[in-house]
Amino acid sequence: MALKDVLKDIEGYAEIVNEIEILKKYGSDYASSKGNVEKIISGLHPKKIYLKLSDIIEESTSTRTFRFTSKNGFLPPFQAGQYLNISVDIDGIRTSRPYSISSPPNQTGYYDITIRRVMDGFVSNYFLDELKVGDELESSSPHGNFHHNPIFHGNDLVFIAGGSGITPFISMIRETVDLNLSSRHIQLIYGCRSNTDIIFQNEISVMANKFCNFSYTLVVSDPSPDYIGKIGFITADLIQEVVENPSSKTFYLCGPEKMYSFCLKELEKLDIRRSKIRTEVYGPPRNITTEPGWPDEIGSEDVFSVSVKGKNNFKAKASESLMMSLEKSGINIPVLCRSGECSLCRTKLISGRVFHPEGVRIRKSDRKFGYIHPCNAYPITDIELLLQM
Ligand SMILES: Cc1cc2nc3c(=O)[nH]c(=O)nc-3n(C[C@H](O)[C@H](O)[C@H](O)COP(=O)(O)OP(=O)(O)OC[C@H]3O[C@@H](n4cnc5c(N)ncnc54)[C@H](O)[C@@H]3O)c2cc1C
Ligand code: FES
User: Fold this and answer.
1) Is 175 in the pocket of ligand 1 (CB under 6 A)?
2) Whose CB among 11, 134, 142, 387 lies 3.0–4.6 Å from 78's, allowing a Cys bridge?
């Protein structure tokens, strides 16, 4: 039987054909509006945006907020908790880092990002020491899934922040307070190393006093002698002490890798289901050679040869992410999260071996066919790569 005859017998087929004929004659069909939809979406969420630094605000001894306006008058809308991946050129090296937007989404005139200095950090120190009001930078549109969705996550939320990991939360808290979203209940547990270097301390305390649906617990691990308050880390015991009925809440966890791994284990001790824990890890591990599974025979100063199909070979340090080594040799690949989560940098490893720390999200099929995430992969032999450019 011919295909035409088979289709004729399918219920509703004749009506659809008739509808297509009417659209062809009198109106526009989907094919003609497809380009327009794409145009609207890429207008709202362009791949690149161009920012101008309009203000620098001192937040604490180690931290500043950088306020950016748009160079061409439009900042894409975002959800509180999302980040920008900002590109910079430092000493001839083009690189980038993700930074959460700390201003609330209801503030549409600018984006704030708040950066804490990382010891020997390449980009954080550049921002804090070199950037001046008026400087222009290129960035991604806002990205990331670390935002609140009341339908899936409910409205009873516990935010666990470590150090600079407070930034996505301050955006969510500011939004909640500014818009008086009274159905949302937020409990913030904020872990800091020092009580003299707490980001947003005054503003958070004022909001907790004013807004009855928001409460705040500070925990300091290395306090000065005059500090009065909770001392230590964010442990299961502490969470149980301050959060009523933890298993009924949705937890959000954000901070540097060490704090993140520690707190995740503490939440597991409380039998919080993994689906009730939303996470954002702030970058790669501080020292990859101390991560579980790192091969004992490879030292942090060991160097391997990287050959990239169609490009020059270069040497890469075992303890430096492959992404950073690629950038140092002048090769830039697509990038967003720089922490192994978003998959944008996935690259084919043709030969050799790399080390991925725990938590890097690589699809099963990617593992099978030898794809890696260079932003959180470290060479442990000579390797050969094929880039998707
Ligand atoms: C989604 C996302 C959002 C982020 N938002 C913010 C933000 O709002 N504010 C902010 O200050 N940072 C934020 N970060 C971290 C930021 O992207 C950089 O990792 C950080 O600024 C350090 O970069 P660097 O170039 O100075 O250090 P690098 O030169 O990359 O690293 C130097 C050394 O420090 C270690 N290191 C890297 N990052 C950290 C860290 N965060 N803490 C401790 N050690 C580290 C590295 O492993 C390395 O050993 C975010 C990261 C992610 C993934
Ligand atoms: S940039 Fe997101 S996984 Fe590498």
Assistant:
1) no
2) 142
Ligand nearest to the CA of 373: 2
Distance in angstroms (rounded) separating the CA atoms of residues 337 and 254: 14
**Cβ of residue 122 lying under 6 Å from some atom of ligand 1:** yes
Domains of the chain: 48-140 (2.40.30.10), 150-281 (3.40.50.80), 289-386 (3.10.20.30)
Total-model pTM: 0.90
Q: 168 versus 24: which is more confidently predicted?
A: 168
List, for residues 82-109, the tens digit of each pLDDT value.
Answer: 999 999 999 999 999 999 999 999 999 9
Please give the Cα distance from 364 to 342 (Å, whole number). 15
Report which bound ligand comes closest to the CA of 332: 2
- 338-351 per-position pLDDT tens digit: 988 899 999 999 99
Distance set, CA 164 to CA 58, 113, 115 (Å): 14, 11, 7
